[in-house]
Write a structure and sequence with these properties.
The chain is an alpha+beta fold and about 550 residues long. Helix 7 packs antiparallel against helix 9. The N terminus is likely disordered.
Length: about 550
């Protein structure tokens, strides 16, 4: 699971590079063709694969640690540490053959025991939870020889080859005390990937090319990852040539950069969504408004939410209206149709509430239930994210027309996370980013994730059953049908209001770099999800 909060983090703007290398500041005349500097407004939380969850950290981890199998630019499984693989006729035994030339950055050979150690460590400790859906169901791992790994599963495992779990060196990690595994700084970061860690200081991470890499060697000698305080300063840095690429830009910066002669900028779909989460908890200790347990109320709020206006006004047109948890370009996407679709319609919201017995009994414009409890809810979001603040304002305005009061409250990201964890909220705004395996996104709403990723605290027995079934369904069309039934159930009960499938906006200096493609074809993954662009990027000659 990759939780990638789409918020503007308050970070310290880094103005100088750490000792040992120079910044690309001041324009194209200072361009260093050996080093590509990538800026982001999101942080590197940790470079420990067992505890990392921020997008920028995943990027660096993917460059330093190879998985068994990775994605190619068409997002199909391709060899990494494993040269090839096969599955038994009953689809419950997988055999992987490792590349014999793969070595750790300290010169030790990569062996099957490293794979076994990594997987069993995560399975036994529960750490590395971002990869947990890919490890579920593995019951036994054996190593017939140094280059062969055999994994047995209790049932067929549909996402086995979508697993990008970073393989870690046993001889390094087995020396770390169990109690310290999650918080270990991993300062040396010994991996087997195309790049080695050079430094991680003051919000700047530098990696350099692994000359002993066993597969295609990259052209770029060094990558430097820099944090910026906000997307405005990030875009300006790209514009003036202080950096070579920028990820996680906002819609405002797209319009600022799209006509720049030496900048290529793209806005495209990503797996994920922005949503309003609604507290559905049945736990008596929950501090949410109990009226939100009524699915009719939740549906009415969605009818009273003008998603297209939010996209236009808060996101400057960069995104598409959301419905279900997987976006419209995903083959697993379920598209509500006809009367099932809850498009913006105040009259339908009013009709739904009328039928459920919610009336404005005291004439103050806010509806109440039969006991006089008002449809008045607190909506919390991140104060320094202008798009999210604007979204809250727009939702409050249109819900008021339907007789629903939305009281807005802003806080910082940490306080919001604490409130959600404690179920101390009515409604909140949040963003999720996911993988191309539906298990990742659909797992969010399982009962087992209540208290963790299931932020609405929602539970549905049939949903849970379908989730388990799709994990073992090897026939893609049958699996699609199972996943779509899950999406329909969640949509019908509305624990989330999926506001939009927001676009990811990235850019790079096309006067300096070539070999960079949009991955996938309709996406924005210059540098996300796959390392193809990191490998293929090269300076303009």
């Amino acid at each position: 699971m990759k939780r990638m909060r789409k918020l503007a983090l308050t970070l310290v703007l880094v103005l100088a590079m750490s000792a040992g290398f120079a910044a690309c500041g001041g324009g194209s005349g200072d361009f260093d063709a050996s080093t590509m500097t990538i800026g982001s407004s999101t942080s590197v939380d940790t470079l420990n694969p067992l505890s990392s969850y921020e997008q920028q950290s995943f990027e660096i981890i993917a460059l330093v640690y190879d998985p068994l199998v990775r994605y190619d630019k068409e997002l199909n499984p391709s060899p990494a540490l494993a040269d090839d693989w096969k599955v038994s006729r009953d689809e419950k035994t997988w055999t992987f053959h490792l590349n014999k030339d793969a070595k750790w950055h300290d010169g030790e050979p990569v062996t099957s025991e490293d794979v076994k150690y990594t997987y069993e460590l995560m399975l036994d400790t529960g750490l590395g939870y971002m990869y947990s859906s890919y490890l579920e169901g593995i019951t036994d791992i054996t190593c017939p020889d140094e280059q062969t790994v055999v994994m047995k599963t209790k049932l067929p495992k549909a996402n086995m080859l979508m697993n990008t779990t970073p393989i870690m060196p046993k001889h390094i990690w087995e020396k770390v005390k169990k109690a310290e595994l999650e918080t270990w700084a991993n300062k040396e970061m010994i991996g087997s990937g195309p790049y080695k860690l050079v430094s991680n200081e003051n919000g700047i991470v530098k990696v350099s090319k692994n000359e002993e890499y066993y597969r295609k060697k990259p052209a770029v000698e060094n990558y430097v990852f820099v944090e910026y305080k906000n997307t405005d300063s990030l875009a300006q840095a790209l514009k003036v040539g202080e950096i070579d690429a920028a990820v996680n830009l906002s819609a405002t910066q797209y319009s600022q950069l799209e006509d720049e002669e030496n900048v290529t900028v793209i806005s495209g779909e990503v797996q994920g969504f922005m949503q309003v989460g609604i507290n559905c908890s049945e736990d008596p200790s929950s501090k949410g408004n109990p009226l939100l347990k009524d699915a009719e109320v939740r549906k009415a709020i969605e009818y009273a939410t003008d998603k297209q206006n939010i996209i236009d006004m808060a996101y400057q047109g960069h995104g598409n209206e959301g419905t279900t948890m997987l976006n419209a370009s995903d083959p697993y996407h379920y598209a509500p149709k006809g009367g099932e679709l809850r498009s913006y319609n105040i009259k339908k919201a009013e009709k739904l509430l009328d039928g459920a017995g919610y009336k404005d009994r005291d004439g103050d414009g806010i509806r109440e239930d039969g006991n006089g409890n008002k449809l008045s809810f607190e909506f919390i979001n991140i104060g320094d994210n202008s798009a999210e603040v604007k979204t809250g304002q727009l939702i409050a305005s249109t819900c008021k027309e339907a007789g629903i009061e939305i009281n807005l409250k802003t806080m910082d990201s940490g306080a919001l996370q604490d409130a959600i964890t404690a179920a101390d909220y009515d409604m909140f705004m949040w963003g999720w980013g996911g993988d191309y395996d539906p298990t990742v996104m659909m797992g969010i709403l399982t009962t087992a994730q209540i208290g963790s990723n299931n932020e609405p605290q929602w539970s549905n027995k049939r949903y849970d059953e379908l989730y388990a079934q799709q994990q073992t369904e090897m026939d893609k069309e049958k699996r699609i049908a199972l996943v779509q039934e899950m999406e329909k159930i969640a949509y019908d009960e509305a624990p989330y209001i999926i506001l939009l499938y927001d676009n990811n906006i990235q850019g790079y200096r096309s006067d300096r770099w070539t070999g960079i493609e949009q991955i996938p074809e309709k996406g924005t993954y210059y540098f996300n999800m796959t390392i193809e662009n990191y490998i293929n990027a090269a300076p303009v000659k």
